[in-house]
Automatic annotation (TrEMBL):
Signal peptide start and end residues: none
Keywords noted in UniProt: GTPase activation
Protein name (record): Rab-GAP TBC domain-containing protein
Highest taxon of source: Eukaryota
Entry annotated with the keyword Oxidoreductase: no
Gene Ontology molecular function, alphabetical: GTPase activator activity; small GTPase binding
PROSITE patterns given in the database record: TBC_RABGAP
Function as written in the Swiss-Prot or TrEMBL entry: May act as a GTPase-activating protein for Rab family protein(s).
Pfam families on file: RabGAP-TBC (PF00566)
Length: 161
């Protein structure tokens, strides 16, 4: 109950608005910190939902090695949901060059699929150190502010429709 209602509200609701919001937040974090990757993903028309929904919904189960997943879950209960962004951002940042060099939609989608299967993510201890180093500061207040902004943008868009 604590996980679903407190740490990940509306992730598993009928609208999945929590996970949709967090995918938009991830997109914004990538835009701010890895603009070349964001530009590539945007220009190719690859939806962030296609890239990261499984990462967030499954909390990295069936994405990363189980040892790593369990360590991420420890951090989730200690640090909160921002750990999901740290993990996603670190996986993306560690492949920024390959992602930026993709020539088409298919290559970009395949590159994202391979992100979780390389040696970087397999070495749990090194990967876990990296998720606290690579992204730099990820304040909970920043994540919450971005969530609020994304929710407001969706509300405005809904009213226009």
């Amino acid at each position: 109950k604590a996980l679903v209602e407190t740490l990940l509200p509306d992730y598993y609701s009928s609208t999945m608005s929590g996970v949709i919001t967090d995918l938009e937040v991830l997109s914004e974090l990538v835009r701010l910190k890895l603009p070349e990757v964001h530009q590539k993903v945007s220009s190719m028309g690859l939806p962030w939902a296609l890239v990261a929904t499984k990462w967030f919904i499954c909390l990295y189960v069936d994405v990363l090695p189980i040892e790593t997943v369990l360590r991420i879950w420890d951090c989730l209960f200690y640090e909160g949901s921002k750990i999901l962004f740290r993990v996603a951002f670190t996986m993306i940042a560690s492949h920024r060059e390959a992602l930026s060099n993709c020539e088409d939609f298919t290559a970009l989608a395949e590159c994202f699929k391979g992100i979780a299967r390389d040696s970087f993510t397999i070495h749990c201890h090194h990967f876990m150190k990296s998720i606290f180093k690579v992204p730099g500061t990820f304040k909970s207040s920043t994540i919450e502010r971005l969530r609020t902004e994304q929710l407001q943008k969706r509300e405005v868009k809904k009213k226009k429709e």
